């Protein structure tokens, strides 16, 4: 069993606050990625850590038993880092952040690539691409994984992955007769693009592009704190079409898989693929050349 220390830190924060919004504020991230990381930790540990209701959050018996050991582990990790830093007199780590809304399997590959770098690094998943960009231009991150487009002119980027669009539909939807569809096939359908909502630039671009192709019935299903399962529930119960990236191996791709759903790729000639890029703000870096060298290494590892 491999445990992610960042997820342990998230667990301790939620356990101490017993409130996802307050814990997210304390960690300087947003609630959806925090909730997602807690779910991944619960999957790693094999049981639920929290009982969640509309009114409160409580530790489960497993959560209560693991809280003190988690605190002790994090304390020892910090002591280990401090000791290593004193011994090696290591330079400042390269701070790398990633949008939580990239396909989960790609995030795993990126984290593995970062772990393979020879220099000291700090890896985090702060939230949306907009939040990653804000941390880049404020100097709180050296390098970030974002969705394009990026409107901020201070940002440079290098594309490291592209994902075709896909329509996620219920198993008995008429669209399931096709293995590939055109974006125009979604006319006269209620289309959900809620997963672009955390990035206003991408959301506006998607909505504009759909409208230009005659797709005007764009609806919202997910509340502020909602996530993949809520979206899937609405697609199943209301026969909606969710416009997502075609990433069958990701968490989202597995949710929208048979027998309940089908994920249908969209012809790239009718809808441009989503582009994911490594981005940096040269003016905020003390050594932009060194960061660009890191970009080269990560791009090669992710190719």
TrEMBL record:
<feature type="domain" description="HTH lysR-type">
    <location>
        <begin position="3"/>
        <end position="60"/>
    </location>
</feature>
<dbReference type="GO" id="GO:0032993">
    <property type="term" value="C:protein-DNA complex"/>
</dbReference>
<dbReference type="InterPro" id="IPR000847">
    <property type="entry name" value="LysR_HTH_N"/>
</dbReference>
<comment type="function">
    <text>Required for the induction the katG gene for catalase. Involved in the response to hydrogen peroxide.</text>
</comment>
<dbReference type="Pfam" id="PF03466">
    <property type="entry name" value="LysR_substrate"/>
</dbReference>
<dbReference type="Pfam" id="PF00126">
    <property type="entry name" value="HTH_1"/>
</dbReference>
<dbReference type="InterPro" id="IPR036388">
    <property type="entry name" value="WH-like_DNA-bd_sf"/>
</dbReference>
<comment type="similarity">
    <text>Belongs to the LysR transcriptional regulatory family.</text>
</comment>
<keyword id="KW-0010">Activator</keyword>
<protein>
    <recommendedName>
        <fullName>Probable hydrogen peroxide-inducible genes activator</fullName>
    </recommendedName>
</protein>
<keyword id="KW-0805">Transcription regulation</keyword>
<dbReference type="InterPro" id="IPR036390">
    <property type="entry name" value="WH_DNA-bd_sf"/>
</dbReference>
<keyword id="KW-0238">DNA-binding</keyword>
<dbReference type="GO" id="GO:0003677">
    <property type="term" value="F:DNA binding"/>
</dbReference>
<keyword id="KW-0804">Transcription</keyword>
<dbReference type="InterPro" id="IPR005119">
    <property type="entry name" value="LysR_subst-bd"/>
</dbReference>
<dbReference type="GO" id="GO:0003700">
    <property type="term" value="F:DNA-binding transcription factor activity"/>
</dbReference>
């Amino acid at each position: 069993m491999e445990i992610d220390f960042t997820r342990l830190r998230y667990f301790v924060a939620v356990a101490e606050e017993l409130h996802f919004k307050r814990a997210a504020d304390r960690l300087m991230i947003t609630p959806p990625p925090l909730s997602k990381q807690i779910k991944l930790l619960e999957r790693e540990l094999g049981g639920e850590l929290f009982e969640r209701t509309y009114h409160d959050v409580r530790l489960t018996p497993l959560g209560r038993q693991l809280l003190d050991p988690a605190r002790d582990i994090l304390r020892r990790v910090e002591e280990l880092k401090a000791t290593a830093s004193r011994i090696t007199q290591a330079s400042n780590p390269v701070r790398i952040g990633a949008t939580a809304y990239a396909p989960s399997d790609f995030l795993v590959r990126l984290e593995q690539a970062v772990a393979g770098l020879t220099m000291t690094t700090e890896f985090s998943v702060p939230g949306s691409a907009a939040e990653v960009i804000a941390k880049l231009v404020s100097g709180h991150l050296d390098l970030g994984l974002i969705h394009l487009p990026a409107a901020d002119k201070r940002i440079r980027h290098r594309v490291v992955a592209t994902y075709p669009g896909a329509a996620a539909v219920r198993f008995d939807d008429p669209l399931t007769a096709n293995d590939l569809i055109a974006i125009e096939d979604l006319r006269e359908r209620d289309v959900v693009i809620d997963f672009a909502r955390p990035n206003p630039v991408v959301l506006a671009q998607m909505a504009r592009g759909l409208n230009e192709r005659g797709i005007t019935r764009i609806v919202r299903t997910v509340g502020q704190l909602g996530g993949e399962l809520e979206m899937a529930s609405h697609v199943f119960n209301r026969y909606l079409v969710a416009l997502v990236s075609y990433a069958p191996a990701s968490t989202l791709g597995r949710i929208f898989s048979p027998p309940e759903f089908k994920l249908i790729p969209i012809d790239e000639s009718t809808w441009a693929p989503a582009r994911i890029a490594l981005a940096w703000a040269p003016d905020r870096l003390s050594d932009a050349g060194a960061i660009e060298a890191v970009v080269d290494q990560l791009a090669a590892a992710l190719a």
